[in-house]
Write a structure and sequence with these properties.
Elements (H helix, E strand, L loop, with lengths): L3 H53 L3 H14 L3 E5 L8 E2 L12 H8 L4 E7 L4 E12 L2 E11 H52 L14 H50 L4 H34 L6 E3 L1 H19 L2 E6 L6 E3 L1 H17 L6 E9 L2 E8 L21 H4 L7 H11 L4 E6 L3 E9 L30
Parallel strand pairs: 7-9
Antiparallel strand pairs: 1-2, 1-5, 3-4, 4-5, 6-8, 9-10, 10-12, 11-12
Helix pairs in contact: 1-4, 4-5, 5-6, 6-10, 7-8, 8-10
This protein binds adenosine-5'-triphosphate (ATP) and magnesium ion (MG).
């Protein structure tokens, strides 16, 4: 396969040669025409000049002398004939050829006072010539003619000489095109070749590559895009590695607990209280493992389902109420006051009920875990233009300001010892994924020692009910309606 620089080079040479050849062909033919036109008009001027000398000469002797002088000066051959009938007897009287100098038709033109031009083979001279004939009149009668001619072969020699010079110039131009084309193609293709090498490196898994952005054109922008792609891949790869490392770490701890305590139990423990304690640790760790696996599955499912999950109108107030009811025993057990306030004008929101339930569960779970006995947890629902805002407030330990941006990252825990062994650091990552997927916004306000407020928005459904035909035009923010029941799916 030819390289791109060779292809570019061949294209440049091909185009230059084609254009030069066309220019030379057209140029040569125009030049030929122009050259003969100039020579002919020069000859006509000279012939007319000779005829003027004839009219001004005192006698034939003087005229002949003048013609002889001109014969040495002019390139063309001069024949002055006084035999107007045959145009065969010539001055000087060197020979009396029987061959006609001009045809009868041309003679007719001369009689009318016209100038005759002849280009081509002439039988009298036995060669190709260019001739100009001007009539000579005396008392309104044609008494002779001036016949000026030049051999075409001689003229062609001049033309060939000039054409050879131009051809030589053309060859030099093609040679220059070959050299310039070589450097140009190398220069044009070198960034592409560099990019190809970088792309190959990336394909092999080496993402930490960078390209110099030398120009602002499309190639420069392509380099920028490749650099951005490389940076994104490096980041992605780091995330992947961190993720695998975190998952392995999170799995290893409960697994070693399970293994250790099972081995102790198998070895036999005399004290039934002790064995009960070990069994409850095993149960706790199993629950923790299960929770971790569930969270991981949730995250994976979110990644896959993002685009395909069906949205439907949700009576958000009652969903929140039911989740809060489930948390009541936990709150009571910990001595936390759990309250719930909902605006009267609340509208149904649009989304996936299971995922949104998960959001609330994760936030309430955090609030319970990081709020100590005697604290308060409050859930507030309010309506603002086209969205419902949900707030989960707690009077717990709060999060240090510098940690706030990181809490949404997978496996991030503010303080590992404080979070205890119950959390995995995946809860808020799941929450953020779900809310963003629903086109909502989520933010947190927190003060260490005072408490935290987690807020997120959800789009409302303009009309939760579908019409009788099951069309969802009225609830156009949702994906579908049940066509059989007419209810929103
Ligand atoms: N309401 C809160 N009050 C104080 N700190 C919080 C609160 N919510 C979250 N955090 C901090 O943010 C970290 C990340 O929370 P996230 O829910 O993602 O993980 P987790 O609760 O530790 O584990 P998981 O939810 O996966 O079981 C927590 O470890 C905790 O340090
Ligand atoms: Mg959590």
């Amino acid at each position: 396969m030819k390289s791109i620089s060779t292809k570019l080079w061949l294209i440049i040479i091909g185009f230059t040669t084609l254009i030069l050849t066309l220019t030379l062909i057209i140029g040569f033919s125009l030049f030929n025409k122009y050259y003969y036109h100039t020579i002919t008009s020069n000859m006509i001027t000279e012939a007319k000049g000779i005829s003027d000398i004839y009219y001004q000469a005192e006698n034939e002797e003087e005229f002949r002398k003048e013609v002889d002088r001109l014969r040495n000066v002019l390139k063309e051959e001069i024949i002055v004939t006084s035999n107007s009938m045959l145009l065969a007897g010539c001055i000087p009287f060197e020979q009396a050829s029987k061959d006609m100098l001009i045809s009868a038709e041309e003679r007719g033109q001369l009689v009318e006072g016209k100038t005759v031009v002849h280009k081509g083979y002439h039988s009298r001279f036995g060669k190709q010539i260019l001739a100009v004939v001007v009539p000579l009149f005396r008392d309104d009668r044609m008494v002779g003619a001036v016949f000026l001619y030049s051999s075409l072969a001689l003229l062609q020699e001049d033309i060939d000489e000039i054409q050879n010079l131009i051809l030589f110039g053309g060859i030099i131009a093609i040679a220059a095109a070959i050299c310039i084309g070589f450097f140009l193609s190398k220069k044009l293709s070198s960034p592409l070749i560099r990019m190809e090498k970088v792309a190959q490196q990336m394909a092999k898994g080496n993402y930490e590559v960078s390209l110099e952005e030398r120009s602002k054109d499309e190639i420069g922008r392509l380099s920028t895009s490749l650099n951005q792609l490389s940076a994104a891949l490096v980041k992605q790869e780091k995330l992947r590695r961190d993720f695998v490392a975190n998952v392995s770490h999170e799995l290893r701890t409960p697994l070693s607990f399970l293994q250790g305590y099972s081995e102790i139990l198998l070895d036999g423990v005399d004290n039934p209280k002790e064995s009960e304690e070990y069994l409850s640790i095993i149960l706790e760790e199993t629950k923790r493992l299960r929770r971790l696996v569930d969270d991981l599955l949730n995250l994976t499912r979110l990644d896959i389902e993002q685009k395909i999950v069906n949205r439907s109108p949700i009576d958000w107030a009652s969903v929140v109420q039911s989740v809060i009811n489930n948390f009541k025993p936990t709150a009571e057990e910990k001595g936390i006051i759990l309250s719930y306030k909902v605006a009267d004008d609340l509208r149904p929101v649009c989304g996936n009920v299971n995922q949104l339930k998960q959001v609330l569960i994760n936030l309430l779970d955090n609030a319970h875990r990081f709020t100590s006995s005697g604290g308060e947890i409050e859930v507030l629902l309010s309506l603002k233009s086209d969205h419902v805002t949900t707030q989960v407030r707690d009077t717990g330990k709060g999060i240090p300001e510098e940690e706030l941006p990181m809490i949404w990252e997978r496996f991030y825990k503010v303080d590992k010892s404080r979070a205890g062994r119950s959390g995995t650091g995946l809860g808020l990552a799941i929450v953020k994924d779900i809310i963003q997927d629903h086109g909502g916004q989520i933010k947190v306000e927190s003060k260490e020692g005072k408490g935290s407020i987690f807020m997120f928005t959800l789009q409302i459904c303009p009309d939760a009910k579908c019409d009788e035909y099951g069309e969802y035009s009225k609830c156009d923010k949702c994906d579908n309606c049940d066509k059989v029941t007419g209810e929103a799916k």
